[in-house]
Protein 1
Amino acid sequence: MNGYLLDTNALLWLESKPLSLRASTYDALLAAPLFVSAVSIAEIAIKAAIGKLSLPPPFQTDFQSAIRRMLQDSAIDLLPLDLPVISRLRRLPQYHKDPFDRMIIAQALESELTVATRDRAFFAYAGLDILEV
């Protein structure tokens, strides 16, 4: 295992509600390299903009700086959405209907990372390593 790719919800729980994670899961996340996809950051921005997600004031006044600070404080590396991931996405079975989650799945497979998620639909993908949060 090369580390954990946090899905969007896992990132938000880790940052705002760490007590909602199992102690063993929290310890596992802290003991390994952590990654988040640029896709998750875009999903957060979109959901905040349309009112589906409430963010604390630092994110409302300077989203970019708040995200950078959050990632830096938690030692989370940001992964770009690149052409190999997009190519993998094109071949990915249509088990999961959410486009953000499908991109995260493709990125985890392409980068050989374990996905940290509670989303049961991720389990349909053969070869995808999952840490259930």
Protein 2
Amino acid sequence: MATPEINIKNKRARFEYHLEDEFTAGIQLSGTEIKSIRAGKASILEAYCIEQEGEVWIRNMHITTYANGSIYNHQPRADRKLLLNKKEIEKITKFLKIKGNTLIPIKLFLSEKGWLKVLIACATGKKLHDKREDLKLKDDKREMDRALKR
């Protein structure tokens, strides 16, 4: 059985933040949540991660309710537990203690075994001038590509 490709990304993450360490984590989901995600009905644009009592949780991740679900359907914006190793959680906890640091999801994907995984990154916010510099570099690269194409 070929698993369909899940392509749910946080496109604004690299523009809004300086990304440092990246971790791959599993997500604890219910049946209707995974069915909605496999249908592509999820968004991580406004999501972020927190550390609570030695566990890492993802907040504000929107998973649309499953159309064929019954009364046992899930809540669209519930907190969901991320499955990480103890060493990874300790590293994340140390990073989050520094003011201005955050943990954001970058991408949702299926592993080779068919498990849903999320790529999360330790990040610090960019200033306005950093964002402008990124836009300038992007425009310059686009102009060079156009010139080479001709």
